[in-house]
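Fill-in record for Pyridoxal 5'-phosphate synthase.
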Amino acid sequence: MWRGGKGEAREPRMTGMAWPAGPGEVGRLLAGTPLMARELPAFDAGAAPGAPGELFARWLAEAVAAGVPDPHAVTLATVDADGAPDARVLALRNVDVDGGGWVFATDATSPKGAQLAARPVAAMTYYWPARGRQVRLRGRVATAPPDVSAAEFHARSPRSRVAGLVARQSEPLGSLGEWTDAADAAERRLAAEPDAVPPGHTVYVLWADEAEFWQGDAGRRHVRLRYRRDADGGWRRGLLWP
Ligand SMILES: Cc1cc2nc3c(=O)[nH]c(=O)nc-3n(C[C@H](O)[C@H](O)[C@H](O)COP(=O)(O)O)c2cc1C
């Protein structure tokens, strides 16, 4: 828990916080909600492909086939200039299967954009409950050239482009009416300038140095396979204790 706004010194704020005495209503709800108590697929790590991009593509396709809602929703973790962590859910836009690159897009002027400018490293976490599968990625983040970012924006639905043109992501909003007015203005702008692109709109690639594939098991015999990128760009892989 941190005190202070943008640019202010951050200190832990722990005063007045007592450790919860008993399980409480929420604790009881959680205790009564079983985790991964369902039939889950087996994972033969020995037969996994040599590169993590290939295994990711396979697991993603299987998540889609299993009806996982929003299988492209991913938690992206970044660090700010002070080293404090931050995380939020984004939409995965593409994967460079052979190169090991995971593509996402956002406004470079957003908090996460500023964090990536200061420290171009990130971690991504996927969880596909119907398959009991987690994928974790860590690595460096690169920014795509402006023409790639513009093309990605042009390929979006009109609704998504209107939302992007409103911009000002994560700035304090006075009222929902202000947002509606800005969205209406963005809609008019898009009608007049169909090629408009918000200046901050940016495509990023997380080039994974490390990728972990985690297959959950109802009996807690989880299987974990980690890939690490070699100095020569190849991949080494090995199992991890669950
Ligand atoms: C399912 C889902 C998909 C999202 N996709 C994106 C996205 O692709 N890009 C984006 O900037 N924000 C996306 N968001 C909103 C982010 O979670 C976040 O609220 C916003 O980017 C501001 O983050 P920041 O303040 O850390 O910069 C998505 C949220 C959800 C729940």
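KEY FINDING: The longest strand covers residues 201-215.
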